[in-house]
Each structure stands twice: as C-alpha cells, then as structure tokens.
Amino acid sequence: MPTFSAPDGTRLAYRVTGDGDPLVCLPGGPAGSRYLADLGGLSAHRKLIIPDLRGTGRSAIPDDTSTYRCDHLVDDVEALREHLALPRMDLLGHSAGTNIATQYTARYPKNVGKLALIGPSPRAVGIAVSAQTRRELALLRAHESWFPQAFAALEAIAEGAGGDWEALAPFFWGRWDATARRLHSAGRPENEEAVTLFAAEGAFDPQTTRAALAAREAPVLLLTGEFDMNSPPRSAAEFAALFPDARLVVQPGAGHYPWVDDADRFVAATAAFLG
User: Fold this and answer.
1) Which residues, at least 6 apart from 122, have a Cβ–Cβ distance to it below 8 Å?
2) For the domain 3-126+189-274, what is the CATH superfamily, name and number?
3) What's residue 215's pLDDT?
4) Rg (CA), the chain
5) CA 79 – CA 33 distance, rounded (Å)
6) Helices (H), 109-146
7) Global pTM value
8) What is the domain partition of the chain in residue ranges?
9) Contacts of 232 (CB under 8 A, 6+ apart)
10) What is the mean pLDDT of residues 122-140?
C-alpha cells in the first residue's frame, strides 16, 4: 500500500482501487479501510482513494494518542490531499468518517467539490439521535427471527441497565445473513483507544461547523438506510437541512452498510450524484 506523512510525522497508508476521477473515501470506526472494499462496485465509476485512519489497518500508531481525536484527523485528510496533488477533491465519508468529512469541509471549503455522507453521523453538527427514534426503527424489524434477543438488549441499554451490545448487530444490516455475520466479525475496530479518543472533549464544535456548512455552495449527498439505527432517516433529514444544496436518499431495505445490502441501488444513487 502507498503511504504518506501526516503533519506530525505519523506514516499513514491508503489504497487505490478503480478508474476515473479520484474520490477520497473516509472509513468509519475509527477503523481500517478493508470493510469498505470497493463500495459495492463504485470503483467502476471512480478511482477510490481510501486511507487507513491513524492507528488502524496499515497506518502507524501515533506517538501522541490525543491525535486520534476527530478534529486532528482532519489534518490527516489535508495531508493526503496535498500528497495526491489534488487542488480540489470529491469526498465521501461513512459513519464516524462523516464527522471527519464534515469538519474537513467546514475547515477547507474550497478544497471540497462534491460531498457524499453515507450512513451520516451527525455528532459534528450537534444533532442527537433519541432512544425513541432508535426504538421506532427497531420495531420495523419485529417480524425477524433474531428480533426478540436484539430488542431486549436494546431496551436494557436504553434503560441504563447495561446489556449485550453484540446482540444489537442485526439491527445494523438490512439482512442478517451469513454475509452480514462474516462482515460484522471482520469489521470490528482493532484499536479501542482510537475509538475511545475519537470523540474526546474538544473533538467537535457544532456551532462553528454548522455556520460553515450553511455557507457551502457545492452539492452534498446524504444517503442512509431505511433501517439504519446508527444514522436514522429522521436524523439524516435534519442533517441535510443544514446545507443549502443537499440531496437526501433513504435506501429501502438497507441498514448501516447500504453497499452490502443492495450494491446496485447504492452505486446507482451515489454514482448519479457524483456525476
């Protein structure tokens, strides 16, 4: 894998797949980039440039672990843009990676063309997802065989009684089948410290970020799954309203990984937006 140097000297890796105009894709987690694969075949339309976030995948662990904080990861994205010699780039983020993409766009508005937020996390803009919203989404899956155990875990966690977080896994997939189980097991973040420190105090400045996004002129796509409990359609719609030119797509039958649940539908929507 090719590498580049972050501003603090940490060596960061990225991979390139596909053809066409470049699209920088930021994974969630924080995690390595493997779980994104080729985003369901989006690589047939764009050259995907997908970094491993610091301390994950093949990227080095930084000397200063406070740099795992989301706002510091923005600096890594800018270093990657400079390394690639891109005057302006289209940017895609997934899950927690949308917080990085959102803050990068707010800080460097002239460096971002089209912005695609997949399974968008709204923490960077201060939108909270209520327990009731998650519960309503969960109940849409009440007919599925795994539901009783998963719903009991969700209720226990919502009530502050602890609970089995692993039991919630089926809620994040449109189909809890063998493929989803395999990808879920393979996609767990391997660096718990990076996960813990990602949202440490000071990571987000919602008021400043909102103000910057309100002035954005270039288009943005927010695509979430119908069943996505991490990024519910209601929250994604509230997020979309912060942009002057936003398109909201709710993918039917999908969870938090829409390119897995229905690759053709995901690629069609995303490629059409990217142009």
Assistant:
1) 128, 129, 231, 235, 236, 238, 239
2) Alpha/Beta hydrolase fold, catalytic domain (3.40.50.1820)
3) 95
4) 18
5) 17
6) 131-139
7) 0.95
8) 3-126+189-274, 129-172
9) 129, 133, 134, 137, 224
10) 94
